[in-house]
Specification:
heterotrimer; A mainly alpha (95); B mainly alpha (490); C mainly alpha (311); B: mainly alpha; 3 domains; 19 helices; 3 strands; 69% helix; 2% strand; C: 3 domains; ND/Mrp_TM (chain B); transmembrane helix (chain B); cell membrane (chain B)
Chain lengths: 95, 490, 311
């Protein structure tokens, strides 16, 4: 039951993040919204893992490991976008 | 099934090259560090193709001896082997064309270019031979990150904006794809394609998961209506990078979509998803061919042409009605379209790059005199154009003829009409550029090394040579299908 | 009881997300993101996934928040993609968000019960690997290729960042923070936290094979401490090119591939861990991977070199 609550929270985070991704014109806010969607997706993985608890483990390690990999990849993506943003915000480069 | 380490090295050799570039930076010229790894990559791809053809079986490897569903396998089947060969061919052509001019021009990002090219190669090889839904995700992320960085390579504000837009689209696609993977895992606790094939059912969870993944992949493949990022990105990148992006990078997510609907959950052609995908592809063909006609810049015109040609790929989905889709001519036509567009588009973008270098601009209306001053490049451009139009003899002709035949056989007249109309529109935009270049004129032309023009022409001739493959389902493209699960280690 | 705890976490998470999306000021949204990350890590604890909670706290919340905060401080004007959303777009986006949430919720509820699981399969081979944390086993053995290529993703991102700043200098030192004297409090904090944190990181790394913890958590902690030291002016940012940064970045993937080749020679399977020496080999490879991850993470936050940083 508690896993279901957090799963629905994950679904809500995806929805809220999606709204932000569409509505915000500024790139930094889009980036924040993207991280919210990512958090929601990872949370859903966590719920999938928790539901599959077996063999004395509190959760299925495979989706948990996938989330660890996914978090690192999402961070790298955010860093790439941040660098692009920093470069684009520099003044005096208009053609 | 043959057990072989070759697929593993095809993925890892370029990664070792990337590490070598980081280690040796500042000590050796980057192109000299990259060269042996490009040669190794070519050797591996040729070996894989040879092994697959001579054994008439796919090459498989279970990493660490761990079998699915716990472990990961790599499998080069017939289609995989063909795509690895295509990747190697384009990479070698691009590398020759991007080889540093003697004066060292090209800026300080040069080391980055070679590192990203190798990273891209690893990602493409993995996308073409991976068998696991999350392994695909890792391949797609490697692919997107290196492709976005290549778009930004030029450093101009336009390029950086295009790269940012591309990155945001790619990330949205990744998230949707990953969401689908999570649902599949929750439903089956299996991510291996062959394993899923045995147990997957067309229930709501599975269909919704596949739909999420397909939409995410569509954003990465730039299928209409998720295409907005592609023209500025492919037009802003340096020409050798554009060639790889247009010829190869958008093909990887397409192939994964194909594998979802053929290898994971085989659907009869009558259901909705194949019709929807083909419908979107048709809109892309018509809309973007017309937009390509209206572009003022050569590179933008080629980028719009890519959007249209991607549309052709999606036509194949309803054209494989048989219980074994890989034996239908729609399958052969679609894969052949992928390969011939890859080669032709690489040649065309590289030619556009050389034209830009020679003239200092790429405005379509001001190409007069080019035919006289740089005939080799222009011939390459024309041959590549032939394949895009679908005129004989060219790979594009065979591919489009097969798709047309399949459409008529399936009674899908609208697809047949779209294929024909797309060809006519392509003729208009290709001839518009050629006509401008054939006009009399005496432009100031900067010299372009002959070996680079030769490389582009060689690529274009390969697209021409594809026009001589026989007009029937190709046995090679059916090797390794239907997928069989690896039961035990050898 | 557990339901109450889950609800107690769900509410701040949803409210936090709404605040991050709806807040008028970007700065406020960023601070909201830090708080959100904290609750998210707690949610992972509630899901009994301590390993993920540590990674989420360190990277998902901490490093990402730091990166965005630094970005916001450095941005000299906003970068927009398109126009502010009109009321129609807001309504459409809102409806889409509701629809997506409902569909995802319905799908989650439709998942089979009891859920299929690989948990038992991950436990069974643990003795042959000499480690007892199944998540570590997934990362380093069963799905080793994913982990190896994920480090490659980090390297690609590092190269990408350098490429994006290439106009300004290919190899050099990035500016760690908007140029200003670090406050004495920050310097004091750094002097205090860095040594203590390093000890904890070593502990985390060592217990990774058995208890939650391990390569990523330890690496991210070291990276965060390093960044703190850089901000306090106690340590330099790594040069972006050549020299030992290149070595540190390359050593992880190369060691992993070399271990794979050793496994091939010893057992006949590439990327297999030969039983008697599995654990020491895994520790060596994880150390090499940690070096790559730490340097990559610091470089990803620090960004490309700046001209005023000198060469």
């Amino acid at each position: 039951m508690s896993a279901t609550i957090l799963g629905l929270t994950g679904a809500l985070l995806v929805g809220i993040g999606l709204f932000g991704l569409i509505v915000h014109p500024t790139a930094l806010r889009k980036l924040l919204a993207f991280n919210l969607v990512g958090a929601g997706v990872f949370l859903i993985f966590g719920v999938v893992a928790r539901r599959a608890a077996a063999a004395g483990l509190p959760g299925d390690p495979v989706p948990q490991a996938i989330v660890i990999t996914g978090i690192v990849v999402a961070f790298a993506a955010t860093a790439l976008a941040a660098t692009l943003l920093a470069r684009l915000s520099e003044p005096g480069e208009q053609p | 099934m043959t057990v072989s380490l070759l697929p593993v090295w095809a993925v890892l050799a370029p990664v070792i090259g990337l590490c070598a570039l980081l280690l040796l930076e500042g000590r050796l010229r980057p192109e000299w560090v990259a060269a042996p790894f490009i040669a190794i990559g070519l050797y591996l791809s040729i070996s894989i193709a040879y092994e697959v053809i001579s054994h008439e079986a796919s090459l498989v490897y279970a990493l660490g001896g761990w079998l699915p569903p716990l472990g990961l396998t790599l499998r080069a089947d017939g289609v995989g082997a063909v795509l690895l060969a295509l990747t190697a061919l384009v990479m070698v052509g691009v590398s020759i064309c991007a080889w540093a001019p003697a004066d060292g021009a090209g800026g300080r990002g040069r080391s980055g270019f070679w590192a990203l090219l190798l990273a891209l190669w690893s990602a493409l090889n993995l996308a073409f031979i991976a068998q696991d839904l999350f392994n695909f995700f890792v391949a797609l992320e490697m692919l997107s990150f290196s492709a976005v960085a290549l778009v930004a390579l030029d450093g101009s504000r336009d390029a950086l904006t295009a790269a940012l837009r591309y990155l945001l689209f790619a990330l949205a696609g990744s998230v949707l794809y990953l969401l689908g993977v999570g649902m599949i895992y929750g439903r089956y606790a299996v991510l291996d394609l062959a394993g899923l094939r045995e147990i997957a059912q067309a229930d709501p969870v599975t269909l919704a998961a596949l739909a999420l993944m397909t939409v995410g992949l569509m954003a990465k493949a730039a299928l209409f209506p998720l295409h907005l990022w592609l023209p500025p990105a492919h037009a802003s990148a340096p020409a050798p990078a554009s060639a790889v992006l247009s010829a190869l990078v958008v093909k990887a997510p397409f192939l994964i979509i194909l594998r979802l609907w053929v290898d994971l959950l085989p659907l009869s052609a009558a259901t909705a998803p194949p019709q929807i995908l083909a419908g979107l592809g048709s809109v892309a063909i018509l809309l973007f061919s017309i937009l390509a006609l209206r572009q003022q810049r050569l590179k933008l015109m080629i980028a719009y042409s890519t959007l249209a040609q991607i549309g052709y790929l999606f036509l194949m989905f309803p054209l494989m009605p048989g219980p074994a889709p890989w034996l239908d001519i729609g399958w052969t036509g679609g894969i052949l379209q992928l390969v011939s567009h890859g080669i032709a588009k690489a040649a065309m973008f590289l030619a556009a790059g050389l034209i830009y270098e020679a003239l200092g601009h790429d405005r379509v209306s001001e190409l007069a005199g080019l035919a006289r001053r740089q005939p080799m490049t222009l011939v390459a451009f024309a041959i590549a154009g032939l394949s895009l139009m679908g005129l004989p003899p060219s790979g594009g002709f065979i591919a489009k003829l097969l798709l047309l035949t399949a459409a008529v056989e399936a009674g899908a007249w609208w697809i047949a009409i779209v294929v024909l109309a797309g060809g006519i529109l392509a003729a208009f935009y290709v001839f518009r550029a050629l006509g401008s270049a054939l006009a009399e004129g005496t432009p100031a032309v900067a010299p372009v090394a002959l070996y680079r023009q030769g490389a582009v022409l060689a690529l274009a001739l390969c697209a021409l040579a594809l026009g001589f493959v026989p007009l029937r389902p190709f046995a090679l493209l059916a090797i390794g299908r239907p997928l069989e699960a690896m039961e035990a280690l050898p | 009881m557990n339901e109450l705890l889950a609800l107690a976490l769900a509410f701040p998470l949803v409210l936090g997300a709404l605040f991050i999306v709806l807040a008028a000021s970007t700065r406020a949204a960023l601070f909201g993101f830090f708080a959100f990350g904290l609750f998210l890590a707690l949610a992972w604890v509630e899901l009994e996934a301590i390993d993920v909670a540590l990674t989420e706290a360190a990277i998902g919340g901490g490093a990402t928040g730091l990166l965005l905060l630094r970005l916001n401080a450095r941005m000299r004007r906003t970068v927009s993609l398109g126009q502010p959303a009109g009321p129609q777009l807001r309504i459409v986006a809102g409806l889409l968000a509701v629809l997506v949430t409902l569909v995802l919720g319905a799908l989650l509820l439709a998942l089979p019960d009891p859920a299929p699981s690989l948990a038992a399969a991950t436990v069974e081979p643990l003795p042959t690997l000499g480690i007892s944390n199944p998540i570590t086993a997934v990362l380093i053995a069963y799905r080793a290729l994913d982990t190896l290529l994920e480090i490659a993703v980090l390297l690609i991102a590092v190269v990408g960042i350098r490429v994006m700043g290439a106009e300004r200098g290919w190899a050099g030192r990035p500016v760690p923070w908007p140029a200003a004297e670090p406050s004495p409090a920050l310097v004091f904090l750094a002097r205090l936290l860095v040594p203590a944190g390093l000890v904890f990181a070593v502990y985390l790394f060592w217990v990774g094979a058995d208890a939650p913890g391990g390569k990523f958590q330890a690496s991210t902690l070291v990276a965060a401490l390093w960044l703190l030291a850089i901000m306090a002016g106690l340590a330099p940012a790594p040069r972006t090119g050549g020299g030992w940064t290149g070595i540190a970045l390359a050593v992880g993937p190369l060691a992993f591939i070399a271990a794979g080749a050793i496994g091939l020679a010893a057992t006949g399977s590439f990327l297999a861990w030969p039983e008697p020496v599995a654990k020491p080999m895994i520790v060596v490879v994880e150390l090499a991977l940690a070096a790559s991850v730490v340097v990559a993470l610091v470089m990803l936050v620090a960004g490309p070199p700046e001209p005023e940083a000198g060469r």
